[in-house]
Design a protein that fits this description.
By secondary structure, this protein is α/β, with parallel strands linked by helices. The protein has a single domain (4-252), classed as TIM Barrel (Alpha-Beta Barrel), CATH 3.20.20.70. It contains 11 helices and 10 strands. The protein has helices at residues 4-21, 24-31, 41-45, 75-85, 103-112, 126-134, 149-161, 173-181, 202-207, 226-234, 249-252; strands at residues 54-59, 62-63, 67-68, 89-93, 117-120, 139-143, 165-170, 186-190, 216-220, 239-242. Strands 1-4-5-6-7-8-9-10 form an 8-stranded parallel β-barrel, surrounded by 6 helices. A two-stranded antiparallel ribbon has the order 2-3. Strand 5 (117-120), helix 6 and strand 6 (139-143) form a beta-alpha-beta unit. It comes from Prosthecochloris aestuarii (strain DSM 271 / SK 413).
């Protein structure tokens, strides 16, 4: 059955073939001494007891389900506005075909802001991890549904070798089990089903109690109201990742550190 995720991964495989021709691993080895230090993404998101939940603010132009979200798209202006709201980290879309993202957007935000930056993309090959470090990312996303268990473990190890934090994304108990088996330190629960793009906040509430202590827990997708954010805070999530919700009227003026 063809789903949103299978379509994206099939297209991504072609992009990866092109990327590998540019030898990002070789480029990384040549330039590693010149690269800026990686910022502490894990530290930025770990929530102390009694502290408010952290925000990963997503800089996002479009989505496959809703099309263009921001017509007059200026990623740095958006990032600066989110920083003023109290964001602890950024997520920047770099997928071109389905989200109209760009490596250039991430490079601009990462080089202009002090807040750590997550590369939001569909990573299916180690070449993309080397590329992430080259373009200035401090963290990457690994989606359990897009990888074999052995790949997940290998890519986690490689990312940490390069100094990158990893947000491992799960959607159900089976994926969560794989993420934990492979030693994930930060787990994001995607409330949106990547097969059909429907969402339910109950997904986060169901999976959070199944995570052991010490895991940095992130609730992703479908958070549109302050009450949604408070629900995730009460459920002991360390952070929420919000993209489209920050464009809505209720969360546009929400000041994060004053929850």
């Amino acid at each position: 059955m063809t789903t949103y995720l299978t379509r994206i991964l099939e297209f991504k495989a072609g992009e990866v073939r092109d990327l590998k021709q540019r030898s990002p691993e070789r480029l990384y080895r040549e330039k590693v001494a010149e690269l800026p230090p990686v910022r502490d993404f894990y530290g930025a998101l770990r929530r102390a007891p009694e502290s408010p939940i952290n925000l990963i603010a997503e800089v996002k132009k479009a989505s496959p389900s809703r099309g263009i979200l921001v017509e007059d798209f200026h990623p740095l202006d958006i990032a600066r506005r989110y920083a003023e709201l109290g964001a602890s980290a950024f997520s920047v879309l770099t997928d071109r075909e389905f989200f109209q993202g760009s490596n250039d957007y991430l490079q601009l935000v990462a080089s202009s802001c002090d807040i750590p930056v997550l590369r939001k993309d569909f990573i299916i090959d180690e070449s993309q991890i080397f590329e992430a470090r080259l373009i200035g990312a401090d963290a990457i996303l690994l989606i359990v549904a897009a990888l074999e268990p052995a790949q997940l473990g290998e890519y986690l190890s490689l990312a940490h070798e390069l100094g990158l934090a990893v947000l491992v994304e799960v959607h159900d108990e089976h994926e969560l089990e794989h993420a934990l088996e492979q030693g994930s330190r930060m787990i994001g629960v995607n409330n949106r089903d990547l097969r059909d793009f429907t969402f339910s906040l109950d997904t986060s509430l169901r999976l959070r109690p199944k995570m052991p202590s010490g895991i940095i827990a992130v609730a992703e997708s479908g958070l549109k109201r302050s009450s949604d954010v408070m629900m995730m805070q009460e459920a002991s999530f360390d952070a929420v990742l919000i993209g489209e919700g920050l464009l809505g009227e209720e969360l546009q003026g929400f000041t994060w550190k004053r929850i």
